[in-house]
Amino acid sequence: MTIRVTVWGENVHEHENEIVAGIYPKGMHTTIADALNRDSGVSASTVVMQDTDHGITPEKLADTDVLIWWGHKAHGEVSDAVVERVANAVWSGMGVIFLHSAHFSKPFKRLMGTPCNLSWREAGERERLWLTSRNHPIAAGLPDHFELENEEMYGEPFGVPEPLETVFVSWFAGGEVFRSGLTYKRGAGNVFYFRPGHETYPTYHDANVQRVILNAVKWAYNPAPRIADPSAAPNVPVESALEPIVERGPKLHKDGEEGYR
Amino acid sequence: MTIRVTVWGENVHEHENEIVAGIYPKGMHTTIADALNRDSGVSASTVVMQDTDHGITPEKLADTDVLIWWGHKAHGEVSDAVVERVANAVWSGMGVIFLHSAHFSKPFKRLMGTPCNLSWREAGERERLWLTSRNHPIAAGLPDHFELENEEMYGEPFGVPEPLETVFVSWFAGGEVFRSGLTYKRGAGNVFYFRPGHETYPTYHDANVQRVILNAVKWAYNPAPRIADPSAAPNVPVESALEPIVERGPKLHKDGEEGYR
Amino acid sequence: MTIRVTVWGENVHEHENEIVAGIYPKGMHTTIADALNRDSGVSASTVVMQDTDHGITPEKLADTDVLIWWGHKAHGEVSDAVVERVANAVWSGMGVIFLHSAHFSKPFKRLMGTPCNLSWREAGERERLWLTSRNHPIAAGLPDHFELENEEMYGEPFGVPEPLETVFVSWFAGGEVFRSGLTYKRGAGNVFYFRPGHETYPTYHDANVQRVILNAVKWAYNPAPRIADPSAAPNVPVESALEPIVERGPKLHKDGEEGYR
Amino acid sequence: MTIRVTVWGENVHEHENEIVAGIYPKGMHTTIADALNRDSGVSASTVVMQDTDHGITPEKLADTDVLIWWGHKAHGEVSDAVVERVANAVWSGMGVIFLHSAHFSKPFKRLMGTPCNLSWREAGERERLWLTSRNHPIAAGLPDHFELENEEMYGEPFGVPEPLETVFVSWFAGGEVFRSGLTYKRGAGNVFYFRPGHETYPTYHDANVQRVILNAVKWAYNPAPRIADPSAAPNVPVESALEPIVERGPKLHKDGEEGYR
């Protein structure tokens, strides 16, 4: 059984910025997908923002077990219809991993219901990630801490809901901390946010970072069949109640009528 | 110090349905506000959907410590701009309580990031609410369980994120259960969902229900000053880093540049 | 890769009570283990309270990936040393599932830090379990609700900490509700509490109950190596600090001294 | 209405160590209590380990709304009976705040159900606490971050259960991070852990630290009457079931019999 991963790349900096192009000549999404494909249990493909429907067609989502999202400069260019499509797929059971600047992507904000804001500094400073949940599957095979010599700083307060679990917390040389690995569930879908990955540094070539993403894919994957209509609000008629009851009192809805939305 | 509450009423059924008009001649919102105003620490006013901006002007929100929302038939008529205004006020620190069919209201879905769906039946059946978090402030003065002889059924699975705390769980005569009292935090704002309150039954005249809503107002209220810009993502320049660091490596942003959204 | 399960049986009622002996002639633990062994990925064995060290030797725990615990009448007879042994194994990464009346077992109370109390009634009434977390792995292959025609009632408030996730909530014919499936993490170990299983009813022969227990075994299993000393509190000497720091100010401990416990 | 606080001091270092005695001539507990007593809504007294029953008599607990606990060197000398007394008071509704090295105190470990371990270094290094939950009442009046120039380092992984909310995360000059402010509920009682306070530094004279402790007292305080028996597991006889049910099937317990523990 193979986990089908789709890596979504914004794919702008790679073409506009020489440094990014130098580190990720085939795009950040390809580097991430290539690393995942070294695991025999994963089959990762890529789509980019410039594809039709940003590459996020209904067919593609139906064939995706776990979606990985990296965006930064062009958050605002992602169409709202695609955002709703992603949200619906997550609610129906697709796993999703948001990387770094995707904290401000439309689908992440849509699923969190919060501003998802933070403070930041681009100084190539040292980041050290500390494990805060021992033996968490997302940390499998990793030491209690690991370093990225050059990273962008993200600082607290991070404007997200309290997670199910805080898996990593980052230390920054300039004096800040950040909750760097956070798990959520939205509808039937598992959600993981992972902080590292500024585009001007070779973060996605780092073995520990690649390991976290691979672990997160396995954690987020849910083999259960997708829920057909994750927003359904079915009426249960009185005559098919599980316990025998008699209808009482005044009613607003006629029999068989749909509920309001 | 008085807690300023605004009760938002959809105010449609009260004018279209004789039964609802009979139970709530001045509107459900007025019944809720009147009950709150019996407490000397609360000052509750009402607005209705038909008011300009649905009554949710920036000035009104600035003067509101806790917003209470009841809607059902006309969820779709609430403007998206007002929904964003409510969300921003919550993120900045306003408390908010969603009642019954407001599970499908736009602001609740906006803040949860999930479908917020459930199953339902309108049969006037018995509901019994059980306390699941002992001595929770929202349950102050209440017994371990209380009953509503006639209510609409809402059944699990309820499509919401795992809450901070589950405060009440409901039993229904027809065989279902429902997590009836759930707490969340979104940005700086406290959020409470409370299930009872179908418009064709006198639920908001019930003393226990009124007590829960009053308790929830006090729980949701946060005396801290509102956060001015709850979505701000400030850049921290290298030269003002809390620890002395030297800028290293390539940069994407020029000095003083705003981040992408 | 096979998950090694140990089913711990109190093994008292089966010998003292004809009804229990009739339903579980080889003991409840054997019924549970036999059901698990039908899955090719699981290898389940049994131990009973009457064994040396209640069957919970250090060697047995070292060979156990997931421990299942059923006890009722003889909670007080379990030695405190064995309770600590179990707690240490969980903290080091062993999964553990507590069934039904094990809510009052010593190891469960030890791991929860709360009274774990509830209300109860032995009337053979109908219990209906509702799923509250869609597509949760512990509910894999199960419908949104299932029934046990005869069960003991457990009622809220259930004196446990707020769980990571509430997976099931039960409805009882006599009017109560109960959070029937709850997940926790304690140290590196996953913990699941599952309510059904009164000894005078054939609950552990029920296919849905067996499915939940099998799913929970797979959920609780953590393939990571056990943590050698889950209570270790290592001193990090100044000279091996990850960032260069200079010792400042007065000290309580001499160099190389152990911390206080 | 005044919140009655009892500050428990281990009171050993203050008599054995000149540095500690110099910073806290009347004991750390007295410094903490004096700071609290500057607030007109709080009445704080102190007890010390050397008092009869360590000062924790049933009468004292009955008169305590919030207990504050600081211990380090003599954790092992605290009697288990007193630990159970404290746990019972918390379960019945008393608030409790554990400070710094009390992470290894018996009552904290008892309430958490985990090892509560961490890494540590005594180098007088800089600690900076960051707020992670905006406008949390425990952070009222505090900036987004504040510093303690000299503190002992505590590092992750911190062996505690996932909290209800993470309120503070600390940055240390030597490269570690730590979840420094954590909220829990145990039974009916609110629990807060707050990291700073090594005895050889003047931490409890710091205005921000004093403010956190005062805020935490107000947060932990629950005005509801204490639960008389927080471990009670009442039987609900069939004839007094809330819904009419008929007893069915075999029974283990005779009518009116107590449950097993």
UniProtKB/TrEMBL annotation, chains A, B, C, D:
SUPFAM superfamilies: Class I glutamine amidotransferase-like. Transmembrane segments: none annotated. Pfam families: ThuA. Residues 4-220 form the ThuA-like domain. This is ThuA domain-containing protein. It comes from Paracoccus mangrovi.
